[in-house]
Amino acid sequence: MNDHVRVRRNRTRKPLLAALLAVPLLLPGAVPAAQAASLDGMIAIGGYEMGAFILADGSLAYCLEPGAQAPLSAQLPPGRVSELPGYSVYVDDAWGWSGQVRTSPATGEVMRQLNWVLAEHGNTTDSEKAVAVQIALWELRREPGNAAWIDGKYAHFNRNGGAAFVTAGKRLAAEAKTAAVGPGNVRPDAPLELTQDTEDGAESGAVSYPRGTTELKIAGGRFADGSTQLKLDGSTAGSVRWSATPHEPAWARFNDVTISGTWALAERYWPAELIVHPSSRAVEQRLGSGVKPVVGQNTGALGPVSATFDSRFAPAVTTQVPEELVPRTTGLFRDRVTVSEADGRWPERLDGGEMLPLLAEGTLYGPFVSPQQEAPDPPVDAPVAARASVEITEGPGTYDVETSLAGASSGYYYWLWMIREEGQSEEIRAAEILQPGAVHADRFGVLAERQIVPTELRWQTRLAEHTITPSARTLQDSVRATLVGGEWLQDESGARLQANVRLTFYQLNERPERQALPSPAARELGHVLVPMTEVDRWTEAPPFTIPADERGWVTVQACLIAADQTAEIVGKITEWCDDFGVPDETAQIVEPLAETGGPAPRPEALGTLFPISPEVALGAALLGMGGLSLGIALLRRRARLM
Q1: Could you tell me the CATH number of the domain that includes residue 547?
Q2: Structural domain that includes position 375
Q3: Residue 297 domain-assigned (yes or no)
Q4: Which residues contact residue 260 at a Cβ distance below 8 angstroms, ignoring those fewer than 6 apart?
Q5: Does 287 reside within a domain?
Q6: Counting C-beta atoms within 10 Å of the first and last residue's C-beta, which end of the chain has fewer, N or C?
Q7: Which UniProt keywords apply (predicted)?
Q8: How many domains does the chain have?
Q9: 554 strand-pairing partners
């Protein structure tokens, strides 16, 4: 409330009012006032009336300009404004205050606060509350140019029992500064929060969203239902699971999952506007009433929030040959390459289940004549028998590889496999999923990666004698070995593997025919073993005695069979037999003559054992038949001729 009628009767100064910056608009349906606002219902505090003016239409309005003259003239039609002009007036009132009052224009938040006080509390029939409303309006427009006038009135009120009104008005002004909110005053009570699962290498997690969330979108992943966009009603807060979809569209070391959203919340805010009721006299101040709050919706964006996954990993490679021995005739080397995860998880595209493709390269080193020691790398001068590669397209697992070396030399062979970063495709190298320049390899000389092409031996055998007589029934045999297709394998000490050759003695009634297998008519008499470690050198076998009751023919077959070898040697020297019935390995049993009285050998039979003429043979036959004189004569004649 400002100076009213009684003030004017005492002394009146013409105020200097600035023009309104915003032209008041006629409110729809408003009827121009035909009379002045009424002071009925105000409270006089020490003679100074405070409270609300009653307008011609019965509504309430309050003074907006501290120190300016009270609007006692007829009111003009009201208008809605967003700014109150500044003013400067000289005041000399009946309550002992005189001086210049200056007030700046009111805009923005001050207008909003004034509106809140008027709209929320100004339309009251409580006269005491109306006094507090007026004091709150003064407080909200308080500034250095009008503070002395306002404080002068407070001092007057305090002296006249109105201190409670001042306190209530100040409290209402303070409340207005926090309660008079503008548009956008309601926001979500929490941001989007992205969490990741704690399992090692997990590329999944959850996102929590606040109440009011209307939509969530994900890039670089998908939600639990498989979608990349979720519609929500915003009624409650919540969370939803997500998982990454890395390496789309290209393989990459770093993959981001980004989630964003939108929100919408109902809000109530106060326009920074007032309804102004101007007086018909320009020197009198304006009255004001409030504008209703706006009930609407505030919207905005959530996030984005992101998680970055590092897909760098290191593979491991090991191998296990399915069989250690490789026949020289086939030369087929097989290996089983097992790849696994040494560090990190094997990168995978979820769509289609495609695993990061890699190339593993294998080198078959050999032949070595002796076993090799396990080491990180092969010897500098290690021979290379073959190279192979395998495309790792299914991720961790076992892959079969084979390569053929026709006529491979006997020896020890070792596989060594590696996955080289520099050996991968341009796409994989550009992704930098593998450490640049990295080599992931197993060790050289691993027993599980060894294959052996066995030594192959051939031999000659020969009997020292080709007749077995009653006085000489022991056969002495000799063996000479030769190599086929490579070297004689050695053990770890460098010594040749000992080959035990079995000499089997067979008896037959007839002279044997040369053939691969023993004749069904042959009867085994026994065998001896000949240990051999030399090439192209005759080795004598242990002597073998033919039982005294045996007759006919004896032949020897030489074989190397696994059963005769030590466990360490088995398989490392190929089994082989020479022919049965070899002439050099065949002897005839000569029956005793006088002792047995049996029939004499046939001449042709004798001729096969000795290089003699038919005459000598006949002579010997005659000796056996009792023709002693004729037999001796023939033998002597043969001797003279010789």
Answers
A1: 2.60.40.10
A2: 315-453
A3: no
A4: 192, 216, 217, 301, 302, 303, 304, 305
A5: no
A6: C
A7: Membrane, Signal, Transmembrane, Transmembrane helix
A8: 5
A9: 507, 587
- Element spanning 363, H or E: strand 358-368
Same domain, 622 and 581: no
Same-domain check for residues 327 and 423: yes
- 362 and 489 assigned to the same domain: no
User: Taking the CB of residue 456, how many other CB atoms lie within 10 A of it?
Assistant: 20
Q: Are residues 363 and 330 in the same domain?
A: yes
The pLDDT of residue 627? 38
Task: Please report whether residue 278 resides in a domain.
Answer: no
Read off the amino acid at residue 400: D
Please give the average per-residue pLDDT across 88-116, as a whole number: 95
On whether both 86 and 146 belong to a single domain, the answer is yes
Quick one: average pLDDT of 54-76?
A: 93
Taking only the tens place, the pLDDT of each residue in 525-539 is: 999 999 999 999 999
Query: In whole angstroms, what is the distance from residue 490 CA to residue 492 CA?
Result: 7
On whether the pTM is more than 0.90, the answer is: no
Instruction: Please tell me whether residues 17 and 162 are part of one structural domain.
Output: yes
What confidence category does residue 351 fall into, taking pLDDT thresholds of 50, 70 and 90? confident
Q: What is the dihedral of CA 138, 141, 143, 146, to 10 degrees?
A: -50
Helix intervals (H) in 64-181: 108-117, 127-140, 147-159, 163-179
- Cα separation, 232 vs 217, in Å, equals 11
* Average pLDDT taken over every residue of the chain: 88
pLDDT at 99 over 50: yes
Categorize the per-residue pLDDT at 465 as very low, low, confident or very high, splitting at 50, 70 and 90: very high
Last residue of a domain, one of 421, 453, 485: 453
User: Secondary structure of 111-144 in the HEC alphabet?
Assistant: HHHHHHHHHHHHCCCCHHHHHHHHHHHHHHCCCC
Q: The domain spanning residue 441 has which CATH number?
A: 2.60.40.3930
563 vs 20, residue with greater confidence:
563
What is the C-alpha separation between 406 and 372, in angstroms, rounded? 23
DSSP state, residue 535: S
| Calpha distance 78→208 (Å, rounded) | 51
State yes or no: cis peptide before 367, omega within 30 of 0. yes
Instruction: Give the three-class secondary structure for 164.
Output: helix
Overall size of the chain counted in residues: 642
Q: Do 153 and 119 share a structural domain?
A: yes
